[in-house]
Amino acid sequence: MSAVLVTGAGQGIGRAIALRLANDGHDIALVDLVEDKIAGVADEVRETGSKATTFVADVSDRDQVFAAVEHTHEALGGFDVIVNNAGIAQVAPLDDVRPEDTKKIWAVNVDGVLWGIQAAAAKFRSLGQKGKIINASSIAGHDGFAMLGVYSATKFAVRALTQAAAKEYAAEGITVNAYCPGVVGTDMWVTIDKRFAELTGAAEGETYDKFVGGIALGRAQTPEDVAAFVSYLAGPDSDYMTGQAPLIDGGLVYR
Ligand SMILES: NC(=O)c1ccc[n+]([C@@H]2O[C@H](COP(=O)([O-])OP(=O)(O)OC[C@H]3O[C@@H](n4cnc5c(N)ncnc54)[C@H](O)[C@@H]3O)[C@@H](O)[C@H]2O)c1
After folding, report:
1. To which H or E segment does residue 167 belong?
2. How far is CA 199 from the centre of its chain?
């Protein structure tokens, strides 16, 4: 099939995407901050029969992202898809946000996606081939959530980059889309829930449960639910789709 680079692949949604795409028959380059985590996922990928390679990189560092793309091409013998999945959350009332807070989250969630877009487009161009760029936005990229204001801003920004890149690269046969999960019970949500508890006096688990209670389909979202949509985006059935960022949230209505 094709060679896919997934960032933030060491756990949560990124891990599920890596495993789903490996099961679809793609070879996978796993990129994350910590080697131990991606080494374990690489073993799981190899069990599916697909190739796996790991590369430690911080997506907020442009040179490291370009190096990750080069590594993918060398190790897997191709480069067809990038999934710019890595991201961090931040829970704070807007009044409390300081410059160092916005810099950090912006560097990972927005700059990190931009470097991934640039590096992938440059590589597709140098190889003279088409390619697919897939970015992690969020339901918080469609609605500004209280206490998640800066996080929401970064995810709106990911949608903006997705739309702009889709227009800039369309003539080269490069498609650019995003996925927008709702509430997925990964480590990210454990951290969000704890921070809500500290700030609002809610019991631990209460905020997560409230959000899950607002999901129309009546069950919590799994990383595999997200990975199923990314499987479509990474495969040939999405060839005529670009610049889109659909919600995959089970019909979440709680705000
Ligand atoms: N969990 C949710 O409910 C949810 C909802 C909507 C969108 N998202 C988005 O989906 C993506 C994955 O979320 P998750 O819940 O799996 O998160 P997670 O915290 O469980 O995992 C994120 C992974 O990204 C890695 N990472 C963080 N910063 C990095 C950096 N600078 N460079 C490289 N890797 C880095 C972490 O080490 C970790 O392995 C994120 O972009 C997140 O914003 C998550």
Report:
1. helix 149-169
2. 27
DSSP state of 33: S
Q: Give pLDDT tens digits for 56-93.
A: 999 999 999 999 999 999 999 999 999 999 999 999 99
From 5, 7, 11, 13, the mutation candidate for ligand 1 (largest count of ligand atoms within 8 A of CB) is: 13
Residue that has been written with the tokens 């997506």 in this structure? 59
The DSSP secondary structure of 126-148, one letter per residue, reads HHT--EEEEEE--GGGTSPPTTB
* Pocket (CB within 6 angstroms of ligand 1): 7-8, 10-14, 32-33, 37, 58-60, 85-88, 108, 112, 136, 138, 181, 183-184, 186-189
Residue 11, phi-psi category: left (phi > 0), alpha (psi -120 to 50), beta (remainder)? beta
- C-alpha–C-alpha distance, residues 225 and 249, integer Å: 9
The neighbour count for residue 35, using CB atoms within 10 Å, is: 14
Pocket test for ligand 1, best of 11, 19, 188, 194 (most atoms within 8 A of CB): 188
Q: Is the predicted ipTM greater than 0.95, yes or no?
A: yes
Q: Among 179, 175, 158, which Cα is nearest to 166's?
A: 175
Adjacency order of strands within the sheet including 174-181:
52-56, 27-32, 3-7, 81-84, 131-136, 174-181, 247-248
Task: Determine which residue's CA is closest to atom 43 belonging to ligand 1.
Answer: 87
Q: What is the pLDDT of residues 46-61, one digit of tens each?
A: 999 999 999 999 999 9
Residue 214, burial from CB neighbour count under 10 angstroms (0-12, 13-18, 19+): middle
Q: Which amino acid is at 58?
A: D
How far is ligand 1, taken at its centre, from the CA of residue 120, in Å? 20
